Amino acid sequence: MFSRVVKAIKAFQERHFVIIFSEDEGEADLAIPASEITSEAILFAARVASGLLCLALPQKRLADLEIDKLPSRYRVQDTPFYEPVDAAGVGSGVSPKDRAKTIRRVIDPDTKPSDLSRPGHLSLLGAEPLGLLKRDGHTEAVLELCR
């Protein structure tokens, strides 16, 4: 198992998609560094995974952007969902191009809360500040890969 983790870390660092699997939840997430996101990467993920597109972020970044955590009734298995957003000024927000632009805007340190519109189409997840030491979740695993 350890060798698979090392291979996944290396692949992620080389800006490739990796799969994060949870036996407890019986589900897997496809992850790539947000800095590498393109509309083509979003299309690829939609074709092979066909699930919900999410962006994992530190809770501090979400607070800086004044993005609120969704009430628990909107969360499954205590997944830390936050308000979905779009980049202000994008088209419908649904297209792969719009979603890639939104991701790039959210991770840009110069982005202000007014640069985002709500509600949007990009689901956001807030990682525990202590990471995997506090919560054994996909959200925290992705951010650990980013370090």
Automatic annotation (TrEMBL):
Q: What keywords appear on the UniProt entry?
A: Metal-binding, Riboflavin biosynthesis
What's an example Gene Ontology biological process for this entry? Answer: riboflavin biosynthetic process
The annotated pathway is: Cofactor biosynthesis; riboflavin biosynthesis
Q: Which residues form a coiled coil?
A: none
Give the Gene Ontology MF terms in alphabetical order. 3,4-dihydroxy-2-butanone-4-phosphate synthase activity; metal ion binding
**Any one GO CC term of the record:** cytosol
Among its keywords, does the record have Metal-binding? yes
List the SUPFAM superfamilies.
YrdC/RibB (SSF55821)
Name the PANTHER family on file: 3,4-DIHYDROXY-2-BUTANONE 4-PHOSPHATE SYNTHASE, GTP CYCLOHYDROLASE II-RELATED
Descriptive protein name:
3,4-dihydroxy-2-butanone-4-phosphate synthase
